Amino acid sequence: MDAAAEKKRLREWAKARRGMLSPEEKRQGNAAACRRVWGLAAYQKAKTVFCYVATGGEIDVTELFRQAWKDGKRVAVPKCGKNGQMDAREITSLSSLSAGWYGILEPEEGAPVVPPEEIGLAVVPCLACDRHGYRLGYGGGYYDRYLPKIGGVSAVLCRESLLLDEMPKEPFDCRMDWVITERQTADTRKRS
């Protein structure tokens, strides 16, 4: 089976698996993963944090946004466009977001663009990922196109139950620097 077909199969598996988590498991996992992000030296150093806005069964990062603002950090979220293009837009409140592409909450069109080289830490979602930092997204390639431009490091948040030993890879797949679950923080740059 080629990588694209295997990823399609894994997307169905991951959606079904995360659908089996109880609300309490999700809540506890969300809080634990956010605390792990705060513990990163990259978070402490970052003046600007770029973070996804959770949808579906993704790890909810609402507390991460609140902590980043409390810590005086500039916060940016994705603004998606056509043909898999994305940029980072600064926000100062979650209430300023509204449904955009794919129904995901996004900033208004006039929100300030944050240059990617100013991003110290990018926090990225996934359906699943592997221990080497390769993530399974939804197939649009937005993050794979955007993340190579950032000035800092990237961290993918993944539920422990969706962490795989190996992910099928395609040439355009972008490796994350950190894998964070509710139970562990792994620096993938130290892995082969």
Would you kindly provide a written description of the structure presented here, covering whatever features stand out?
There is one protein chain. By secondary structure, the protein is an alpha/beta fold. The protein has a single domain, classed as NagB/RpiA/CoA transferase-like (Rossmann fold). The protein has helices at 3-19, 23-38, 41-45, 62-70, 142-146, and strands spanning 48-51, 74-80, 86-91, 98-99, 105-106, 113-114, 121-124, 128-130, 135-136, 153-157, 163-164, 178-180, 185-187. The chain has an eight-stranded mixed beta sheet with strand order 6-3-2-1-7-10-12-13. Strands 9-8-11 form a three-stranded mixed beta sheet. The two termini are 24 Å apart. The model has no long low-confidence stretch (mean pLDDT 93).
| Global shape | globular
**How many domains?**
1
* Structure annotation, total helices: 5
CATH superfamily: NagB/RpiA/CoA transferase-like
Largest sheet: 8 strands, mixed
Helix share bin: 25-40%
CATH class: Alpha Beta
**Averaged pLDDT:** 93
Features:
192 residues; alpha/beta; eight-stranded mixed beta sheet
Short summary:
The chain is of the alpha/beta class and 192 residues long.
